[in-house]
Design goal:
Two copies of one chain form a homodimer. Helices cover 17% and strands 46% of the residues of chain A. Chain A is an alpha+beta fold. In chain A, a hairpin with a 4-residue loop joins strand 3 and strand 4.
Chain lengths: 127, 127
């Protein structure tokens, strides 16, 4: 494990990760995103027509910063690369995440364009 | 203004910005930070011996992502470059920020190494 066990709750709880990728012009892009954690990798959902997908397809570098809303000085940062991008044409993973975040979408027009981005964290920092 | 007026509260309120810089090895680094906003630039505090200072000294690219803790899907992202790094040897700006965040530090051993990082946002996204 690249970070102390006592920070794992920040990955297990449905919080918001500020996810950073690099745009083709080199500018840095950061957005809050849903995520899930299986004990070794983080998974995110996006669509093929979004900037973020283009960014990680061209440059796999990525970081996630998650802080504890109840104790905002407590945070975990994961740095690494995108290890896999899988199609999610039925939006199954999207629905999994939506349910984790207590949301539900019947109508989701971008379902056919959904992908799962898997991230392998290589290093971490915390406070 | 590069973002709608209705998002300015996210800069005016003492929230936490997830600030991203690029490390010398190219890895992306994101951390929650205090900030202030004067209507045109964002200011941050760090010290000369921190990774973040080394990062922005070598590569001025920076982004900030701030979401609303009461409405977590509402966020503002600013992208840009560091326009200025000024010494803050008395930690005066640090104290200003600490007070903005309702904190107070009498003892601050790194005061002599404090600097103010000014960021000029060049583009923005929001939701």
């Amino acid at each position: 494990m690249i970070f102390p066990e006592e920070f794992v709750d920040l990955l297990v709880r449905p919080l918001f990760a500020h996810v950073t990728t690099i745009r083709p012009d080199g500018a840095i892009q950061t957005n809050p995103m849903w995520y899930s954690w299986d004990g070794s990798s983080v998974r995110l959902t996006t669509t093929r027509d979004r900037q973020k997908f283009g960014n990680v397809s061209a440059d796999p570098r990525i970081s996630l910063s998650i802080h504890d809303p109840e104790r905002p000085y407590r945070y975990l940062e994961l740095r690494g690369t995108v290890s896999d991008i899988e199609p999610d044409p039925d939006g199954k993973f999207f629905d999994e995440l939506a349910s984790r975040y207590s949301m539900h979408f019947d109508e989701l027009p971008d379902r056919p364009r959904r992908v799962v981005i898997a991230v392998s964290p290589q290093s971490a920092s915390w406070q």
